[in-house]
């Protein structure tokens, strides 16, 4: 008798190749757009001071795009390799990290080649390469659906930011928030930033929920709720990591920008604080949204469709008020008298003693 092979957990199933390809293409396209745009803005200035400040402004976006691209491409490579052979945990992590490093080097070349003589662009390139490598290592974890959901959620965050920061959208919204004076403009921009972070978190959580639900249907079993929590907050977590890298590996760029003027120092500090706060909002709102979405799909215990129940057993039907079921008795042989009941020996002996008395 042959026993069926045990099925792997749904969270460890590889994502479809088409899903991995689409995610990698979208992430690479976004990273290429961010890097090319950053290079164009940096090289458009003839003044060295403006070139430094433009680099500082462009660095956080380039780092965020690089970490997502590294994770998406590494997930694609691991998915393609896994179709031919099963990868162990160590091999999977090594392949993901190596792929992320390769993506990081390619991303770093776009900015490093602006000026190879100074150390500033070397620091920029190193920061971008480190971000992509971390993304590749993240893709090496044995939770492919969660990686894919996080990647799609991060792209959703990028898309929300692209739409809201367009002049046709941002201008009217800021006017509605009271952008009519210098002090009011600061408050309006702060409210706009918080609102954008909340919408980004909602988008990341819902996208992650949809991706994981589809993965569960393909696997034939739903994923456990902690994976929805991780995927929903994954986009915010990657943004937090990007901000940490920007402040540490890219500290030289931020310091140089702060030396341009005291006003620029204050601006860089405010922007760093706002980016970190926004990332934390995206993390918590995304995780909360995914958990609420999962909770709405759960039904109370015992509240199931009647068609899903099997027919109740006979004993249960009798207890429910149906006609009682009589116990079956064995058929007696035809033509024979029923056997007389046996009298216990002790009772017969007692009767004889009473007669003698």
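Sequence proposed for the structure above (357 residues):
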């Amino acid at each position: 008798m042959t026993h069926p092979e045990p099925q792997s957990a749904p969270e460890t199933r590889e994502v479809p190749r088409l899903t991995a390809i689409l995610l990698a293409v979208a992430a690479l396209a976004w990273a290429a757009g961010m890097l090319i745009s950053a290079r164009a803005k940096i090289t458009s200035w003839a003044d060295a001071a403006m070139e430094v400040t433009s680099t500082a402004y462009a660095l956080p976006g380039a780092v965020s795009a690089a970490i997502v691209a590294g994770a998406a491409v590494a997930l694609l490579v691991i998915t393609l390799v896994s179709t031919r052979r099963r990868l162990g945990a160590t091999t999977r992590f090594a392949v993901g990290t190596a792929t992320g490093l390769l993506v990081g080097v390619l991303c770093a070349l776009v900015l490093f080649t602006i000026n190879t003589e100074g150390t500033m662009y070397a620091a920029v390139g190193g920061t971008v390469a480190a971000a992509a490598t971390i993304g590749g290592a993240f893709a090496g974890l044995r939770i492919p659906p969660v990686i894919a959901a996080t990647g799609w959620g991060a792209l959703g965050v990028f898309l929300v930011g692209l739409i809201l920061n367009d002049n046709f959208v941002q201008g009217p919204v800021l006017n509605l928030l009271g952008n009519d004076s210098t002090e009011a403009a600061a408050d309006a921009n702060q409210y706009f930033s918080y609102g954008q972070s909340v919408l980004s978190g909602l988008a990341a959580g819902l996208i992650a929920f949809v991706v994981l639900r589809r993965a569960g249907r393909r696997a034939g079993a739903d994923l456990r709720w902690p994976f929805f929590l991780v995927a929903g907050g994954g986009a915010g977590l990657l943004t937090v990591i990007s901000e940490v890298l920007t402040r540490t590996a890219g500290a030289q760029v931020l310091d140089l920008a702060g030396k341009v003027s005291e006003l620029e120092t204050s601006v860089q500090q405010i922007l760093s604080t706002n980016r970190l706060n926004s990332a934390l909002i995206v993390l918590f709102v995304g995780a909360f949204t995914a958990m609420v979405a999962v909770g709405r799909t759960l039904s109370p215990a015992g509240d199931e469709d009647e068609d899903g129940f099997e027919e109740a057993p006979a004993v249960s039907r009798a207890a429910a008020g149906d006609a009682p079921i009589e116990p079956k008795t064995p058929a007696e042989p035809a033509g024979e008298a029923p056997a007389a009941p046996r009298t216990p020996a002790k009772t017969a002996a007692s009767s004889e003693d009473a007669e003698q008395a």
